[in-house]
TrEMBL record:
The lineage of its organism: Eukaryota, Metazoa, Ecdysozoa, Nematoda, Chromadorea. SUPFAM superfamilies: Lipocalins. This is Uncharacterized protein. Gene3D superfamilies: 2.40.128.20. It comes from the Eukaryota.
Length: 94
C-alpha cells in the first residue's frame, strides 16, 4: 500500500486495527496471538494472526480461498514506535 495509514486501538484485551488506503479500507478486530478469519485486500478469506515480538508487530496471513490458496503464508512486519504502528514494507513468505 503506497498511501494510507494504520490505526490501532485497544479495549481491554481486544484490538481494532484499521487499514485505510488506496485499495480500500479493512478493519480487523482481534486478540493478540489468536487466529481469526478475515477478508484481505484481495477480497478473499484469510486466516490471520497478529503477534507482538519485542518491538515488532507481526501480521500473519494464510490464504483460505482464491488463486493464492496454495501459496505459502505471508508475514507483514511493522515496528511499534511510541504507540504507533510503523510499516517496514517487508513481506516474508513461508
Amino acid at each position: 500500500m503506497e498511501t494510507g495509514y494504520f490505526y490501532l486501538t485497544k479495549n481491554l484485551d481486544e484490538y481494532k486495527f484499521e487499514i485505510i488506503g488506496k485499495p480500500g479500507n479493512i478493519i480487523y478486530q482481534f486478540k493478540l496471538n489468536e487466529e481469526f478469519e478475515g477478508v484481505g485486500f484481495d477480497g478473499h478469506k484469510h486466516k490471520i494472526k497478529f503477534v507482538v515480538e519485542n518491538e515488532d508487530f507481526v501480521e500473519v496471513h494464510e490464504y483460505l480461498d482464491g488463486p493464492r490458496k496454495e501459496k505459502p503464508r505471508v508475514e507483514h512486519d511493522s515496528m511499534m514506535s511510541h504507540g504507533l504502528v510503523v510499516p517496514r514494507n517487508e513481506m516474508k513468505m513461508f
